[in-house]
Amino acid sequence: MRLSMMTPALFLLVGCGHGAMGQAVLSDGCRAEDSACEKRGFEAPIAVGATVEPEVRIDLRGSGAPAAHFTAVGDDVIVADRGVLRGKAAGVAAVLLRTDSGTVLDFFHVWVKAPTHLKLFQLAPAGSTEAITTPLELLEGESVRLSASLFGDGQPLAGRADQEWTIDRPVVAVLGEGRSDRRRLVALEPGRTTLRVRSLDQTAFVEIVVHAAYPGSLAKTEVKK
In the 8-state DSSP scheme, what is residue 143? Predict the structure, then answer.
C-alpha cells in the first residue's frame, strides 16, 4: 500500500465521516438543509442491499484536486463501483480513497448492517420529521408528505434502496417527489385505506382515513368502510 505524502486535505461537507489518516472527510451527498438525510450521514451503518454515493471535496495547498476513486478492501462486506458504495453483508470493511495513479489518500472503516424494520415519518415544511404511530386523518383535498427509512435493531441505517408504495383503495393519490424514499399523499374522497411501503424485504403500513371537506353534508361525512 503506497501512502500519500500530500498536504492534508480540507473537506467542507456535512453529515461526514473522517478518514483514519485525517486527510479526507466523506459526505453521503445530503444537502445541508435536508435534516432528515443529514442525520444519517456516515454516522450510521449502511443497510445491506442499500447504496451510498459519497461526495468528496479536496483542497490541497499548492495543487489542484487529484483524480481519485474508492476501492473496497475485499468485496464480501461492501462493494465500491464507479463512486457508489453498496452494502453486501453485515460487518465492517475498509474503503480506500486512491488517486487514479494508485496513491492512497485516506481510508475509512464502513459498517454494514442488515435491516430489521422500516419506519414511516411525516415531513414538516421545515424539513424535520416525526414518526407515525397512529392512523392518519385527512380532509378531502388535504395533502401530507411522508418518508420511509430503514432501521436495524432500532438503529437508523444509511443508504438508498428501492421502495414500493401501494394503497388498498384509491381514496388518496400517492405522488412521487423525485426520491424513492418520499411521497406526497393527496386526499381525493372520503373513505378508508391502508398505505403499505416495502423496501429490502421490510414492510411498514399505516391506516389513512379521509373525511369529507364539508361536514354539513351527511352524505359526505360518512366514512366508507
Answer: E
In the block, cell 489542484 appears at: 64
Cα first-last separation, the chain? 66
DSSP conformation class of 36: H
Digitized pLDDT (tens) for each residue of the chain, 225 residues in all: 444 434 333 332 223 444 444 444 455 445 443 434 433 446 789 999 999 988 776 655 556 677 888 999 988 999 999 889 999 999 999 998 888 888 888 888 899 999 999 999 999 877 678 999 999 999 999 999 999 999 999 999 999 999 999 999 999 999 998 888 999 999 999 999 999 999 999 999 999 999 998 765 444 444 444
Q: How far apart are CA 214 and CA 217, in angstroms?
A: 6
C-alpha cell at 34: 435536508
CA distance 73 to 85: 12
Entry pTM: 0.75
**Distance, CA of 4 to CA of 22 (rounded, Å):** 11
Amino acid at 62: G
